[in-house]
Amino acid sequence: MSHKILRIAVIGAGPAGVATAKYGLFQTIDIFEQRASTGGVWNYTSHAPAHELSVPQVNPHQPLEEPKWADSSGGRQHPDAIFVTPMYDRLESNIPNHLMRHTDDAALEEQPLFAGHQSVLQYLNRYAEEVRHLIRFHTQVYDIRREDDDGQDRWLVCTKDLVSNKASERYYDAVAVASGHHYVPILPDISGIRLWNKAYPNVISHSKYYRIPDMFKHKKVVVVGNSASGLDIATQISLVSKHPVLNSKRSGVPESGRTDAWKQEMPEIVEFLPPSHARQAIRFADGQVVSEVEAIVFCTGYYYSFPFLSSLEPRLVVTGDRVENTYEHLFWTPHPSLAFVGLPYKIIPFRTCEGQAAVIARIWSGRLALPSELNMKTWESERIASRGAGKKFHELGNLEDFRYHNEMVEWALQARPKDIDRVPPKWSKRDEWVRRNIPAIKRAFAEKGEGRYRIRSEDELGFEYPSGANA
What we know:
Strand order of the largest sheet: 5-2-1-9-22
Number of strands: 22
Distance between the termini: 39 Å
């Protein structure tokens, strides 16, 4: 770093931002949160205006999201700023509570093994209490850029108070971006989709705007994608829709590892046929044509998008599939005093963010050194060579996130002096065993019906770590 880092800005007060603040030992830590509360993406928003979705949606470069406004609670005089999240009414975590929890707060283990989103939000609000005094709520960051500040090259963070509409600027030595990546939905530009959407409005939607299955009652439904959330949404819709629910996916097997009688697996959609051909008809890659389709839900993920960083060069986001010029999914190579917490996906997020936060704190305090810029660029080139420059770049599936976290912890432990601040534990062999068995554990949990809410550990479902195995 070119100068000592004393003042840092953290963008976002979700689990990633709060963890970053907890691990940081700096003179000033300011957390900017555009919502009225902590919890980030775990905030449920009942109002999900699907009509705002662009069909198709292929441009990651979107302006800042405008807030919706809701009645305030707790006697406050102003309403709360609401930003739409992908949380839906019946969402339950797909990660066991003891893996999902933050390392210094075991309260989540008091909840069902796969906790509901309400319980997770309550847990995160509790976890954030330690740093709540650092958070500036209802404050939207609209620009971050490098500028000279009294002879020093620093980050100018430009914010707006969403209640008063007052703009402010302040210089920081470093910035941690922890604002998440569930903002701009991906909805592919498939042949004929524009005309089809005009002919049949409100039939095409995205999982970001899904809330309850009731709106799909007695309808012929296509769900596109086989991610964990896509499969869960398809399962919920199947309880009220016509059977089978058509599950369209590019390739591979479902993440659940099995097929179900209510679902028919289909290849990807290659064409939306014009009304002159057939009513509400689509063509699949194998040539099959299905007509009278009454609802299509795209569970196709999100672009990386950071409109408040759009002035930076080289550009952070080009295609939206990844963040350019990053080292270890964490530091921005041109200026490592800009870091991103929580970029990877297919991860156990809370602990992954803790490992990243521990490294950031030690790098920025000068207790750990980064490689040369050339070596950091080499890491990115090698990652592209092995995983490609698209969405797979930040994917850490198949226990790669466990290896990544353990490497972050090992890196943090190299700092000198030692033991002056916190460091999360590594994942254990038992943790790895549980992770490998999550699909089967989740199925056994779901099969308990209402009784699942009394289940607190996988042991109660008959999943016991093999005796004699290393812990």
